[in-house]
Amino acid sequence: MAEQQQQVPAEILKKIKRIEIDTRKMVNNIFAGEYHTKFKGQGMTFSDFREYVAGDDVRNISWTLMARAGKPYVKTFEEERELTMMIVVDVSGSNDFGSRDNFKGETLAYVAATLAFSAIRNNDHVGLLLFSDDVELYVPPKKGKQHVYRILREILFFKPKSTKTKISSALDFLRGVLKKRATIFVLSDFQDTGYDTSMTYLEKKHEVIAGLVTDPAEFMFPDVGLIDLHDAESGETILVDTSNPAFREEMKSRFQGDFEKFQKNLKRSGIDSFTFEADEHFHKSLLAFFRRRKSR
After folding, report:
1. CA–CA dist 119, 128 (Å, integer)
2. Which terminus of the chain, N or C, has fewer Cβ atoms within 10 Å?
3. Per-residue pLDDT reduced to its tens digit, 70-79
4. Which of 273, 268, 104 has its CA nearest to residue 193?
5. CATH number of the domain at 2-37+82-294, please?
6. Is the dihedral of CA 220, 222, 223, 225 positive or negative?
7. Which residues share a beta bridge with 187?
8. Is 3 a residue whose pLDDT tops 50?
9. Cβ atoms 82, 124 nearer than 8 A
10. Where are the beta strands (DSSP E) in 234-288?
């Protein structure tokens, strides 16, 4: 770890520390008690034996112990509380956009950091997957603060090879590498298609939660006159007239259509989700999501 830190510039370490302070405050003060009971454990694990009483499930009788003791005993189980969390983050070019203080990608980093610190606060395993139109980086789930530091550095400063998006590539990869049940947060602007089938398959074994990041300007494009509009994923730049109401309406329809498609895909797949804007108030949406699950 020390060797890794020496290779990271001081200003980068300072930013990591700032995010740790901000997100830890949210975890300790806002999310205390809101995180761990919201997600399913790995299942039930054997705890002990006790004498059989009327009404016990006969399938839990230990016939070996009964033969030795001369009376029936049943196995008792308790829920396995330790969780594995996978944080799956979209690093494609479309997240290099923001009309406020934060780009969408920066807000994704804050959400991921909050989830990661929530996990280690409860002694859970946490892993990371960064994707574009392919898997860019995979960090297997582990415990510990130093591990979360690594995850945060990768989210903030990893340089992807591609600017394009293919969500299904990340989901299909996880199906192959995750052997134990995990809670998987997929954080993206979901400007993609054809991922719903992959999500459905992944949900059969794991708990998949989609976090959609949006920017207000995507739904209400500002009137700023003639500008060069750069598509970060395709690399194409075109001159557009933002004062033209038809252009602004076209942009609004496009992103509204993407949002509706996102909701439709998740409903079909049975995936839970939450939506947050690219700004400093993301924690409100995350907290509302946790509380909504708690009330079920």
Report:
1. 12
2. C
3. 888 888 765 5
4. 268
5. 3.40.50.410
6. negative
7. 89, 211
8. no
9. yes
10. 237-241, 272-277
